[in-house]
């Protein structure tokens, strides 16, 4: 195709969303002239499924749940008055609470005000708040936000020690929809201990966001925490950033929450239309289908040329992969669907993995995210009249061209700036695209049955550890091999897990297990010190 023909193709397929100033360019995807027409009936079915979902149908049949994240920014569209009130009440509660915190009406015992927020959560209870905080935050925010999003002891030490004396003015926000996630429970207990160590009452510094009646809910009430805010079964964790999960942290940080919700609402309006050419979510879903043959054969590389959007790929990893990575179709057939997502930011990635994108295995498509506004205020001319921002665009366009020359496909999303409105719109765009794509490939996007297997297996590992420790204590100073100990606890078949447990126990002082003997597994001996 000549440059002129490409320009024509760019204009013909450019999807423009004037309400948020966003455009989606699909001209560098190599779909044929009849692709969009050929997908029409499938797409119509996807639109109908989405319409039914928004009206309150059971869109998550396995869990028999409704899927209500679109109502979070348009409560008037909720199918029942009770749902609408639940949303508007939550919005009013989180806003009022944040206002009281900022005003020092809700205050810690030993400081005039809360100045820091420590969010404890994982997966959908962390990724949205992390994206929003990083995209929109600054040193001038009403409060600074920190995260515990893992059960890594050193990771937690780093954050809690970093806060140090500031724990006295830190508000802990513990977020878990289910209220039973172990990593979050552990983070909460470690935070509680850190407060205690400084003679502070954790409950007077803590609030929870969780489902009514959950373990966390009971703990928060039992320990007289400041407040609990609701989370509902009709909002999925990975689409919960516009529930109290994301809104409470955003309000506390002092971000433009109204703009965030309005951007999403405007994007919802634009992506609700059944006209494919005008609907960027439909086009995204169709391009994913085109690129991967409806089987996820190509990976989605998310490349925002903006530092503030660096967490977008991490956020989308959960949204896309947990939603689309499914073994079974809605009819119960084995389909092993999914699309792998990775990325970081441009132009940084041009100095890392873009080499492979241009010349290596062609198993991906890129989504560039272009942000028109370079910065607040004027820019320095770094070379001739060129600014750093001019370079950033130059590198984006250069890479787009270099990839296309080699038959590697890309799309480009262009947004005016990184504002609350834009971030809300991008979240809403991908939420809808994921839902539509799931319909195109006939899977349930709203459950995550595969996640349970790892959790169950971890439970068994910890059960084995308990038995092992009792045995080691009973055997006192007698050094035994992993094989012997596995037999001792009636788990001969699980000797590899037993060895891994012993290796970890003996590397840490917590349980008083000592390792002697050789470096190889069969030579190692373990005993209670
Ligand atoms: O919010 P929570 O109930 O603690 O869940 C946190 C996360 O963990 C689970 O394992 C799910 O796979 C995620 O979808 C969820 O967001």
Automatic annotation (TrEMBL):
GO terms for biological process: gluconeogenesis; glucose 6-phosphate metabolic process; glycolytic process. Its main location: cytoplasm. Keywords: Cytoplasm, Gluconeogenesis, Glycolysis, Isomerase. Catalyzes the reversible isomerization of glucose-6-phosphate to fructose-6-phosphate. It is found in: Cytoplasm. It catalyses: alpha-D-glucose 6-phosphate = beta-D-fructose 6-phosphate. Pathway: Carbohydrate degradation; glycolysis; D-glyceraldehyde 3-phosphate and glycerone phosphate from D-glucose: step 2/4; Carbohydrate biosynthesis; gluconeogenesis. This is Glucose-6-phosphate isomerase. GO terms for molecular function: carbohydrate derivative binding; glucose-6-phosphate isomerase activity; monosaccharide binding. The gene is pgi. Pfam families: PGI. Residues 510-529 are annotated as: Disordered.
